[in-house]
Specification:
Chain lengths: ~250, ~350
């Protein structure tokens, strides 16, 4: 009798402490590939053409990804903890292009949503201040404006399509409270993001679209675009159109 | 038998009680009363999100006066923001940074920051918690990186303890550092001047001060508006362009031509002690400032419409009127704030 009571109680003990929500979670990796004509970018050496006939090379390509969330078919949203959601993608640093997200509820998601840059609407709350050191080390901070550079590309170009030999740089961020260049990207997929264990999601950034996705950009017209209320929003808009998802693999 | 069951039930109860019972409060960290003056607007700063606490304030004060925040280890926030001069860099036209480097702008006073919507002469910081990035990283100011500052603080035992006491997560990180600095700075409320006492009915203006007040309300208060003595807008007040700096002002933040040469309308509280004046500290006395408005205004790009009268520029003032205005402005000095030990370095 005693033994049975003991056994029952021990069983109860072991059951009673289990979490109520038995939701299974997984970690996933998201891999960002910056490509031109489906090829990896050759920094500094590769020479590429815009649709307006200019040629360009890229020395530096960086952008901030933030506010990642996943949307299910039924509209249910899983928002990744905002304070852990800031990532710097740097073309030159391979490890920066794979970001790992932990504790994602296992489900079949139809959309992934993220921001390019930092959402100024509640800046600098949501732990974004803790991203300052990372951004600073990569020169993604405008120190004089206490703000982040959201998207940065630097390189050389040639208006006539020859060997690029003139510098260009686009540094895109928000202009104080005057102009918000933060953009969100939503990628859907008819195959779904079925997150099971160790899912790897591929996201491709088709870099030439930076010059023509929505607005045609002739680099010669303005080869230095920083706090530029006319041109910066155009680059930001184009940048938000770069991304597409590729069917994910299981590792 | 029944004892055994009782025993097991007790174990059951304990088993699920979680970690709370093991948590020992290290020390009480009291939330400070924010000294909201009756006649001030509601604070802009979100005091619920980052309530000033005893330990947070103490940490913020230590950070404020610590040269560790600079690359050379000797330039603290307090170096350019000196309390008895309403936290400005007294007598320095533009502020000095590491190794004697000269900046391009005059350090602004620190007080009533909880009521400001944007910070810096051009509004480059939209939030007090982000403001400190500017002086820390500017090469002519503290010339340091935020990452380095955090590393220095992490390797300091005293700071580790202070951060642990001040914040729930106890981490030495950027957010907590900025929040501690903000906690120290938002508590700097200055509202105990003769002007305030007159408002409260506890004092009266002299004839001269009273005349100055009338003039002020007629000729100055459209920009230096309300209880904070600023409408927080950006305006070009007709200063000649100093080619050494060619400071474009607000345009640097917005990129808009229409914002060129515009600077934040500064508060006038404690104005007697916060000389020199203007964004580049070009005027050493209020007399010079009033002379500028009377006869020195130049028609530079985007000159504020309020300074363009029918045929003349500026605000015409007689010498008598200037003296009356200065007498009124003297009533805006808050000695208790300037000497408040809570904010003092030593």
């Amino acid at each position: 009798m005693k033994k049975i009571i003991c056994l029952v109680l021990v069983l109860m003990l072991s059951v009673s402490c289990k979490d109520d929500d038995t939701l299974e979670t997984t970690s996933i990796d998201i891999s960002f590939a910056n490509t031109i004509n489906s090829q990896n970018i050759e920094l500094s050496t590769g020479v590429y053409q815009t649709t307006l006939g200019e040629s360009y090379s890229i020395n530096e390509l960086k952008y901030i990804i933030s506010n990642i969330s996943f949307i299910k078919e039924d509209g249910g949203i899983f928002t990744y903890p905002v304070e852990d959601s800031y990532f710097l993608i740097d073309e030159e640093v391979p490890s920066s292009k794979i970001i790992t997200l932990e504790n994602i509820p296992v489900a079949n998601y139809s959309k992934i949503k993220f921001g390019i840059g930092v959402d100024q609407s509640n800046y600098p709350l949501n732990g974004v201040d803790n991203f300052v050191p990372t951004a600073e080390e990569s020169q993604m901070l405008w120190s004089w404006s206490a703000g982040y550079i959201f998207f940065k590309i630097e390189g050389d170009y040639s208006p006539s399509g020859n060997q690029p030999d003139e510098g260009f740089l686009f540094h895109i961020g928000s202009h104080g409270t005057n102009l918000d260049n933060y953009k969100t990207v939503e990628l859907s997929s008819n195959f779904g993001f079925n997150f099971t264990e160790n899912t790897l999601v591929y996201i491709n950034a088709d870099i030439p679209k930076l010059f023509n996705a929505v607005y045609d950009i002739r680099i010669e017209d303005k080869s230095d675009i920083q706090v530029d209320p006319v041109n910066a929003p155009k680059i930001a808009e184009n940048a938000s159109q770069l991304f597409s998802s590729i069917p994910q693999n299981k590792r | 038998m029944s004892k055994l069951i009782l025993c097991m039930v007790l174990i059951l109860c304990l088993a699920c009680s979680g970690d709370e019972t093991n948590y020992v409060e290290i020390s009480e960290n009291k939330i400070l009363d924010f000294p909201q003056p009756d006649f001030f607007p509601q604070p802009v700063y979100n005091l619920e999100e980052n309530p000033p606490t005893e330990k947070g304030f103490e940490l913020g004060k230590k950070l404020f006066y610590d040269g560790k925040l600079s690359s050379t280890g000797v330039i603290s926030c307090g170096f350019c923001h000196v309390q008895e001069f309403s936290f400005t860099h007294h007598t320095h036209e533009v502020s000095h940074g590491v190794d004697g480097a000269l900046g391009t702008r005059n350090a602004q006073p620190l007080m009533n920051l909880a009521y400001l919507e944007e910070f810096s002469w051009d509004g480059a910081a939209q939030h007090l918690d982000a403001f400190s990035i500017i002086p820390i990283t500017t090469d002519t100011e503290m010339n340091e990186t935020v990452s380095n500052v955090i590393n220095k603080l992490k390797s300091d035992e005293v700071y580790n303890e202070l951060f642990a006491e001040a914040f729930n997560n106890g981490e030495v990180n950027t957010q907590n550092m900025f929040r501690a600095l903000s906690q120290f700075m938002v508590m700097m409320v200055s509202a105990d001047t003769k002007y305030d006492k007159v408002l409260e009915g506890n004092s009266v203006f002299s004839e001269e001060e009273s005349a100055g007040q009338s003039l002020f309300e007629a000729k100055c208060a459209s920009c230096h508006e309300g209880i904070l003595f600023t409408d927080q807008s950006y305006r070009n007040n007709g200063l000649s362009i100093d080619l050494r700096y060619n400071d474009i002002g607000r345009e640097r933040v917005t990129g808009l031509e229409e914002d060129k040469y515009k600077f934040k309308v500064p508060t006038l509280r404690n104005i007697m002690v916060s000389l020199p004046y203007m964004h580049d500290g070009r005027f050493q006395s209020l007399k010079e400032v009033l002379d500028h408005y009377d006869s020195g205004v130049e028609s530079t790009q985007n000159l504020d419409p309020s300074l363009q009268q029918e045929i003349s520029l500026g605000i015409s003032l007689t010498e008598i009127e200037k003296n009356q205005l200065i007498s009124f402005l003297k009533t805006l000095t808050d000695d208790n704030f300037l000497l408040d030990r809570r904010f003092s370095e030593f």
